[in-house]
Amino acid sequence: MSSFARTLSLAALLSLTQAHGVILNAQGLRGSPASVAFGVNPELARNCTAINPCQQDTGIIRDAEIAANIVNECGRTELTGNIDIGENTENAIAAGAVTQVKSGTQMTVTIHQVNADGAGPYICDLIEAGNNGVISQNLTVENNVPGVNGFSQAKTQDFDIRVNMPEDFKCTGGSSGKICTVRCRNNAQAGPFGGCFPVEQVDIEPNVNTPANIETKLSLDGVFKQVANDVADLPAAVAAIQEAGSDQAKQNAAIVSSLLKQTVTSAPAPVLTPSVILGGNPTTAVTATATATASSADAAQPTETSNGGDNGNGRGGNGGFGNGFGNGFGNGFGGKFGSGRGNFGNKKRAEVFVA
Ligand SMILES: *[C@@H]1O[C@H](CO)[C@@H](O)[C@H](O)[C@H]1NC(C)=O
Ligand SMILES: *[C@@H]1O[C@H](CO)[C@@H](O)[C@H](O)[C@H]1NC(C)=O
């Protein structure tokens, strides 16, 4: 038996109790691209119930594992472990595979029930900031997958459920500043099973982050618990990463990757440096709503003569910083280069590319 085959059977033995439902597709606005759940691999067979391969890319999303800082809100799959929401979101954006939504959009979400406890009911919720760990709203589900406590006798079957976006929400995540993460999972004892997928909101202006407008906070108790968990888990985590870095493990991973034809579309990310107000008093800086005539790096205070509109006239003297704050923070970049650029009122994002 090859060592690859040995690895497979060991993994299969370790995960005997699993069973699953996978989110294969999510469609929001008609004509927009479809999303696929994070971690789902289109190359995996869907016509079997075996743990390997047919259960390998199901999301397992357990509150206890999230609380223990073993995984984040989208859980893990057997094949890849923790699902990095940010990484998967950016991959989906680069691949043009993010479905679009608006206030009240009814999405069609296709759930593949692998075997008995991938059944319904599924419960869906929303992370409006994408990956900040805050489940901000529950979503209504219609036409749920049949089942009680996550069980039914259906297997290898696809079900289309309807998931409704709320009337009132604001997606602020991802590099595009308008991505939410939708999470759906059932209530099976061996699960919960399900997954997360990204949606792009098209009826809002994209969010632009500044360090100061990040609202998430963790309680002191939460921080202590997280530290304690991480310290306790560190030895095992260090050992696991050493193992994963071994030649054998790398070879196995390469084989899996080639079997599953795993590819990631890469798109270059722009280099942006938001301008900041220098030398001013903080109160003015925080409440500045428009920019007019900052003329060099050391002319720090914006004079508020613009009507918040379309003229963020920042001129950077000697490569200094202009002050292009359009319409209340977050929207004015620029002024970084000699002649600076305006045009970022009305919440338009200025894209400053530095090759
Ligand atoms: C199951 O699906 C795989 C591809 O996903 C295919 O290669 C295989 O032939 C199918 N098996 C059966 C029995 O239909
Ligand atoms: C979602 O619903 C559950 C169950 O009723 C509730 O415990 C939870 O607080 C709700 N979450 C939010 C973000 O409203």
From TrEMBL:
Alphabetical keyword list: Signal
Q: Where is the signal peptide?
A: 1-19
Q: Which residues form a coiled coil?
A: none
- Here the segments flagged for biased composition (Low complexity) are 291-300
Q: Which domain of life is it from?
A: Eukaryota
Q: Where is this region: Disordered?
A: 291-320
Q: Locations of Gly residues compositional bias?
A: 309-320
UniProt xrefs under InterPro entries: Egh16-like
Report the Pfam families cross-referenced here. Egh16-like
Full protein name: GEgh 16 protein
Record organism: Monosporascus ibericus
